[in-house]
Automatic annotation (TrEMBL):
GO terms for cellular component: apical plasma membrane; phagocytic vesicle membrane. Keywords: Cell membrane, Cytoplasmic vesicle, Glycoprotein, Immunity, Innate immunity, Membrane, Peptide transport, Phosphoprotein, Protein transport, Symport, Transmembrane, Transmembrane helix, Transport. The keyword Transmembrane helix applies. This is Solute carrier family 15 member 2. One of its GO terms (biological process) is dipeptide import across plasma membrane. The keyword Protein transport applies. The chain crosses the membrane at residues 67-86, 92-111, 123-143, 149-173, 194-214, 299-317, 347-368, 380-398, 610-630, 642-661, 673-695. InterPro entries: MFS_trans_sf, POT_fam, PTR2_symporter_CS.
Length: 727
């Protein structure tokens, strides 16, 4: 981050953006530029203040970019699930692959800006890449364009370009904003960063709430939020004449990598025992690099070593947009006055961050200090890990409760069956060699649950016997394994008859409701559920296919028969439920129906996710903000960009770990939550041990000691030479 005061004093707004750039990949911002550069012009001021007019373009551009990015990412998992019909594991894996790429590419953007193009041109060029990525992604989401292979290819190309664009400009925009201020305006520069990070969180908060609403009203396309960034990218370019543009001045990250690489290479070349050992393995770079650079790299590697366990926190944290969103699709989202979309729950994180930061800074931390407890940065980060682990423990408990309304998982040679008695009197149902249905099935009785059938192979012909008031009828039906059936018993021409129909094997996805119709009339019917759903059902107890609908009250339907048009009322079709609606009669100008709930509705309310969001957001404040500030304080001024690279790479590695688990080790979702909880607790213990042996340092003190040691060494060398001359 540009400016010593801005670097040293992170205020509340600066801390809001946990994973974004709190300090950037720049060398110019840490030390005054060296060399002969063109004199930078002064930008016009905002309303007579010391704020350059150019920062207005930068702040608006950042708000729109973050709105676009977070809005698209919020609906991405459900887009994969609904539009591509991928399973949950593949959707999760691709989501985290995209997230990981977004945090690998900032290194590329930093190198481009500092070593080649400069910040302004890097932002412009990669913004174009970003916009093109969104356009390709949007084209790939048009249902009528090509087959699924075309959609997937276009979407993946678009996501790659988006990751390259958003990641590439991430380290440049805030630094470019800082470059707009003259050196004497450090106070205004610091306040600019507050406004800058506020715009980031505002874009994130608004888009994660609004974009899922747009998704729910249209086709599941994650392209609703890109138009604003397309427009304001043009606005950013329009402000070109106002910007102060610093030329590229070299990237310290490359120098550090070269120094480390040379040290390792030189050490491997000099493995002979006759060669004297050196105090530190990085000292093997002294033949080519200065002692100052080597000393600073030593300080950085001490902190980077502490970064090794950190990816596990991000592996849990970033699942808010994947596994937690998928969990929300299986919950009841009705809050009375408003029905939340499953992916809208993500807006709680930026909202809670804005709430928690002042509470922690002004309340919790001072209270802990008053209790004379030494709450060191390492302890804060470890506490953040524990809170994130507890959040996933709660998620596992909720997942177990959600599974109680799921259909049983069937294994080979197993099927499920139930009986729907649509006759006027109770019916006794018997299946040969199966001990099921001990009691008669009452007329229009809603079965409590399915009964399990054990077959002798992949399929089996079963003999059914129906008994009613002394009348016995027999039927044979072939039943397949891993299937779910309903045996429909009804009266036809004064006698009993039956049909065996196939039911849904699992809950409808994404919180939708499923409904099918059985026509008990002696004439065909055409049904209208809403303005978009038209269903034709043949007479004499024929059954329609299931239709998937949004959760709602459906009381404005129509039933059209040979004799006329009649109103059709279905009532509430709830989240995740499956229904069979039987049309029994037409009387008094209305359609009489009977509704059976095949699969129970989601009965765990989405509000139960609130505690886990509270815990993981509190954990983020303690872990991320503290970790950034701590690592920033432990590095010399010229190496802060290197630590920023290391910090962003921990996010990338964490997301990579999630996609590996999702694809390589699929398991029950509650078990996966428990696995991540245990892994984070184990990593927390390792990190705490590493932190216990870590000794905090002041980089300036180490630099002073290094200078004194070099001065002393030079003095000794001069003395030796003089003595030799006298001899």
């Amino acid at each position: 981050m540009v400016g010593d005061k801005a670097r040293g004093e992170m205020n509340a707004f600066q801390r809001n953006e946990s994973k974004e750039t709190l300090f950037t990949f720049i060398s110019a911002g840490d030390d005054p530029p060296k060399g002969d550069f063109p004199l930078q012009k002064k930008s016009p001021k905002l309303c007579g203040s010391n704020y350059p007019l150019s920062i207005a373009f930068i702040v608006v551009n950042e708000f729109c970019e973050r709105f676009s990015y977070y809005g698209m990412r919020a609906v991405l998992t459900l887009y994969f699930l609904s539009f591509f019909h991928w399973d949950e594991n593949l959707s999760t894996a691709v989501y985290h692959a995209f997230s990981a790429l977004c945090y690998f590419t900032p290194v590329i953007g930093a190198i481009m800006a500092d070593s080649w193009l400069g910040k302004y041109k890097t932002i412009i060029y990669l913004s174009i890449v970003y916009v093109v990525g969104h356009l390709i992604k949007s084209v790939g989401a048009i249902p009528s364009l090509g087959n699924q292979a075309v959609h997937v290819v276009l979407s993946m190309v678009g996501l790659f370009l988006i990751a390259l664009g958003t990641g590439g400009i991430k380290p440049c925009v805030s630094a470019f904003g800082g470059d707009q201020f003259e050196e004497e305006h450090t106070s205004e520069r610091s306040k600019f960063f507050s406004i800058f990070y506020l715009s980031i969180n505002a874009g994130s908060l608004i888009s994660t709430f609004v974009t899922p609403v747009l998704r729910g009203q249209t086709e599941p396309q994650p392209c609703e939020s890109h138009l604003d960034y397309n427009i304001f990218s043009v606005v950013f370019i329009a402000g070109s004449g106002l910007y102060r543009k610093t030329p590229p001045q070299g990237n310290v990250l490359l120098e550090v990598c070269k120094c480390i690489g040379f040290a390792i290479k030189n050490r491997l070349k000099n493995r002979s025992r006759e060669i004297p050992k050196r105090d530190h393995w990085l000292d093997w770079a002294s033949e080519k690099y200065s002692k100052q650079l080597i000393g600073e790299v030593k300080m950085v590697t001490r902190v980077l070593f502490l970064f090794i366990p950190l990816p596990m926190f991000w592996a849990l944290f970033d699942q808010q947009g994947s596994r937690w969103t998928l969990q929300a699709t299986k919950m009841n989202a009705d809050f009375g006055i408003y029905v939340l979309q499953p992916d809208q729950m993500q807006f709680l994180n930026p909202l809670l961050i804005l709430v928690f930061i002042p509470i922690f800074d002004l309340g919790l931390y001072p209270l802990i200090n008053m209790c004379k407890f030494n709450f060191t940065p390492i302890r804060k980060m470890a506490t953040g890990m524990i809170l994130a682990g507890l959040a996933f423990g709660l998620a596992a408990v909720i997942e177990v409760k959600i599974n109680e309304t799921d259909m049983p998982r069937l294994v080979p040679k197993e099927s499920l069956i139930r009986v729907l008695n649509l006759a006027k009197n109770p019916v006794q149902v018997t299946i040969q060699d199966k001990d099921l249905f001990q009691q008669p099935v009452e007329s229009f009785q809603n079965p409590a649950e399915y009964s399990k059938l054990i077959l002798n192979g992949e399929q089996q012909s079963l003999h059914f016997t129906l008994q009613q008031q002394g009348l016995t009828l027999a039927f044979n039906y072939t039943v397949k394994e891993k299937s779910v059936y309903s045996l429909i018993v009804f009266e036809a021409e004064g006698s009993l008859s039956s049909r065996l129909i196939t039911d849904l094997e699992a809950k409808p996805e994404n919180g939708l409701a499923a409904v099918r119709f059985i026509n008990g009339l002696s004439q065909d019917v055409n049904l209208t559920i809403d303005s978009k759903r038209f269903i034709a059902v043949q007479k004499n107890y024929s059954a329609s296919e299931y239709s998937l609908l949004e959760r709602d009250m459906y009381n404005n339907g129509k039933c059209i028969t040979e004799t006329g048009e009649f109103p059709l009322e279905l009532g509430l079709l709830d989240f995740g439920a499956s229904y069979t609606v039987v049309i029994t009669n037409i009387s008094g100008g209305t359609v009489e129906t009977w509704k059976s709930e095949d699969i129970k509705a989601n009965n765990v309310h989405m509000a139960w996710q609130l505690p886990q969001y509270l815990l993981i957001s509190a954990g983020e404040v303690m872990f991320s903000i503290t970790g950034l500030a701590f690592s920033y304080s432990q590095s010399p001024a010229s190496m802060k960009s290197v630590l920023q690279a290391g910090w962003l790479l921990t996010v990338a590695v964490g997301n990579t770990f999630v996609l590996i688990v999702a694809e390589a080790a699929p398991m029950a979702q509650w078990a996966e939550f428990v696995l991540f909880t245990v892994l984070l607790f184990a990593v927390c213990i390792i990190f705490s041990i590493m932190g216990y042996f870590y000794v905090s340092v002041d980089p300036e003190d180490l630099e002073e000691k290094e200078e004194k040691r070099e001065t002393s060494s030079r003095g000794n060398m001069i003395g030796l030479v003089t003595q030799k001359t006298k001899l």
